[in-house]
Amino acid sequence: xxxxxxxxxxxxxxxxxxxxxxxxxxxxxxxxxxxxxxxxxxxxxxxxxxxxxxxxxxxxxxxxxxxxxxxxxxxxxxxxxxxxxxxxxxxxx
Length: 93
Fold this sequence. Notes:
It contains two helices and two strands, in the order αββα. The protein is α+β, with helices and mostly antiparallel strands.
């Protein structure tokens, strides 16, 4: 894999954040949250990258079990799709 440029890093972070946020808000009304904190860390390496997503939800109502992990999984799948599309565009197999 070719090293990610700054624009691609920003696109991946935005994609992960928006996908996770949309998944959470699709399942629970925004008004039910006191705080939604999504932290994304992307470390670039020469031929790969590490993506870490942490989600903390603060709510007075009972939230669906594993909602944070589901949102992380959906976001990671979206990033995987982004990387697969990038590889096809760059013929980087």
